[in-house]
Amino acid sequence: MDARDIKQDSVTYGALINVCASHGLEEEARTIFGEMQRAGVAPNLFHYSALLNTFACKGKHADAEEVLRQIQAAGLTPNLVHQLFVFEYLCIHVWWENLWMWSIPFL
User: How distant, in Å, are the alpha carbons of 73, 99, 105 from that of 96?
Assistant: First the structure.
């Protein structure tokens, strides 16, 4: 982006993180998020949401939980979208991962 003189602001970083999130590129999203912070651009709920989405969909529970802690540490309040996303992820993925344990008595 520097070579093309594109101004790197909150919107630009948010778009890049969101693109990485939508393609499952968690390391790239994490790198861009870090670059944004080093550039002095404060993350907002959109940035955190994209990062949370990336980690949760990849099954990186510890990273997703860390993002939620960062949201709270930044003085932001996770909104209903964050809460529903985490709830939906837990209901679908954690339930599915543990389904085999529940089905053993029925085999």
Answer: 31, 5, 16
Q: Which domain holds residue 51?
A: 2-106
Among 79, 27, 81, smallest CA distance to 51 is for 27
Number of domains, the chain: 1
Measured CA to CA, the distance from residue 58 to residue 64 in angstroms comes to: 10
Task: Quote the pTM value.
Answer: 0.73
Non-local (6+) Cβ contacts of 45 within 8 A are 71, 76, 78, 79, 82
Mean pLDDT in order along the chain per 10 residues (107 residues): 71 93 91 95 92 81 84 86 69 57 46
CA angle 48, 90, 47 (to 5 degrees): 5
What number of residues does the chain have?
Answer: 107
- For the chain, give the longest Cα–Cα distance: 63
